[in-house]
Design a protein that fits this description.
Elements (H helix, E strand, L loop, with lengths): L6 H11 L9 H10 L7 E5 L4 H14 L4 E4 L11 E3 L2 E2 L2 H15 L22 H14 L5 E5 L16 E4 L7 H4 L3 H8 L8 E4 L6 H10 L2 E4 L5 E4 L4 E5 L2 E6 L9 H14 L8 H10 L7 E3 L4 E5 L4 H12 L7 E6 L6 H8 L5 E5 L9 H6 L17 E4 L2 H11 L5 E6 L1 H8 L5 E2 L2 E2 L3
Parallel strand pairs: 1-5, 1-6, 2-5, 6-7, 7-8, 13-17, 14-15, 14-17, 15-16
Antiparallel strand pairs: 2-3, 3-4, 9-10, 10-11, 12-13, 18-19
Length: 453
């Protein structure tokens, strides 16, 4: 068996193992998990959806930690460092702490030195091929299974039914907003995509549906499976004014809540789903009203409408599909007037790029398209060819080109900073690679002051 001494060596090994980057299905990853004897002795919350998963997980983690629970969180992808994908008690795992778990998964994958469980054909000895995501998901699940936790939060990577995360039975499922994304894997419309997301439900267990208009396939799946659906507008609801908001549902009520620290109008939808999940799990994980207030006030999540104050203003957002770009556009529009908006953008080629650019285009005066370090990405030149028609900005910025192409997100942002006036606004959005690329080495100097990421 091969063994490696660094995280980078193990990750390179994982990238070489499987002939394709994404292969839906649980048979292979479940076989290895059985060989490992992987299980949790604490409640598990699983979160699926198109948008809002990361924010939902972050708010759950913050509130549960404020209640004194030992929380494990697994999310993907990461922005800068691979270890960001897993947090134990609020802290990212250490790279050197992962090495033993990589070795454990590799032994199980090769069918060596681990118990064989009878009665299942896949539990025979022999090598199992795993994708990068499957292998690393097992690593993080192993980390959390050995960490003496009170609760585990799992974010689904792609879809739900056939995602590696779904090999773990959940005590409470949350399905956030559903929209068109990853259609080559999940289906051509919201009904097909909703059917895949609904695969995280379990019989007799609560499923929180925070999408205000969920596909009928989600509701049907809950009925057929015998899950306990909590629907926004029926089983829980929220309301608010400019100062505060409130939530009620199934015998519980919170009033006079401050707005979540995460910015954006859509965050109330996510927060409402979080409070529904915590109410559904009250008998296993009771939380106080003060923990709810503190958790929502202290929650942080880089790259989700993250505003970096300075001159010019800088906004970071991993919006990478039409639905999330529409939310970003609404949030930008609500920020008020800026003489010129500069946009740094890089994205995967398989996204609905034309729809994304058309939606946010009216708000952007100058584009800085960038290449990304992955074969899946559209090139900067391809993105510029899709740029929506728009007249050049007025004033001094009118002397600049409407769009430029750059080799990476960092150089694109440097160009935007150099071109922008102090009163302008710069937005960096698109792929995790785009936002992560500008955060990797710290943000550039704005108005003469270096802003750390």
């Amino acid at each position: 068996m091969e063994s490696f001494n660094t995280l980078d060596q193990w990750l390179a090994h994982c990238e070489r193992l499987h002939p394709v980057g994404i292969e839906m299905g649980l048979e292979r990853v479940r076989a290895v998990a059985h060989r490992m004897g992987l299980r949790f002795n604490c409640p598990v919350i699983t979160v699926a959806g198109t948008n809002g998963k990361g924010s939902t997980c972050a708010m759950l983690e913050a509130i549960l930690m404020q209640s004194g629970y030992r929380v494990g969180l697994y999310t993907s992808p990461h922005l800068v460092h691979f270890e960001e994908r897993c947090r134990l008690r609020g802290e990212p795992v250490r790279a050197d702490g992962l090495l033993a778990h990589f070795a454990l998964v590799e032994r199980a994958r090769l069918g060596r030195d681990l118990r064989q469980l009878p009665g299942r054909p896949q539990d025979v000895r022999g090598e199992v091929s795993l994708t990068y995501f499957e292998f690393t998901t097992l690593v993080f699940l192993s980390v959390m299974a050995h960490a003496e936790l009170d609760v585990v939060i799992l974010e689904v990577g792609l879809g739900g039914r056939l995602d590696a995360v779904n090999l773990i039975d959940t005590d409470c499922a949350i399905i956030t907003s559903i929209d068109l994304d990853h259609m080559e894997f999940l289906g051509p419309d919201r009904e097909a995509i909703g059917r895949e997301k609904a695969g995280i439900m379990r019989t007799g267990k609560p499923v929180i549906v925070s999408d205000p208009a969920p596909p009928q396939s989600v509701l049907k799946a809950a009925r057929v499976l015998g899950a306990d659906p909590w629907l926004l507008g029926t089983d829980f609801q929220f309301s608010g004014d400019k100062q505060q908001w409130g939530w009620s549902g199934r015998g519980k009520r919170y009033s006079g809540l401050a707005y979540p620290a995460l910015r954006g109008a859509n965050q109330l939808l996510n927060a409402a789903g979080v409070l529904a999940a915590l109410s559904a799990l009250w008998d296993k994980l009771p939380v106080t009203a003060q923990a709810v207030r503190n958790g929502l006030a202290l929650v942080e999540l880089p790259g989700r409408f993250q505003i970096v104050p300075g001159q010019p203003m800088l906004v970071l957002d991993v919006a990478h599909n039409p639905h999330s770009v529409a939310a970003l556009s609404e949030n930008l529009d609500a920020m008020g007037f800026y003489p010129c908006t500069h946009a740094v953008f890089g994205a995967m080629a398989d996204k609905d790029l034309a729809a994304m650019l058309a939606r946010i285009g009216p708000l952007v005066d100058r584009w800085y398209f960038c290449d990304l370090p992955t074969p899946r990405a559209a090139s900067a030149e391809q993105l510029r060819a899709m740029m929506p028609d728009r007249a050049a900005a007025s004033g001094p910025a009118a002397q600049l080109p409407v769009a430029t192409c750059h080799a990476d997100p960092r150089s694109a942002l440097q160009a935007a900073v150099s071109a922008a006036d102090p009163a302008d606004r710069i937005i960096v959005f698109g792929s995790f690679y785009t936002v992560g690329g500008v955060l990797r080495d710290g943000l550039p100097r704005l108005a003469g002051q270096h802003l750390a990421s």
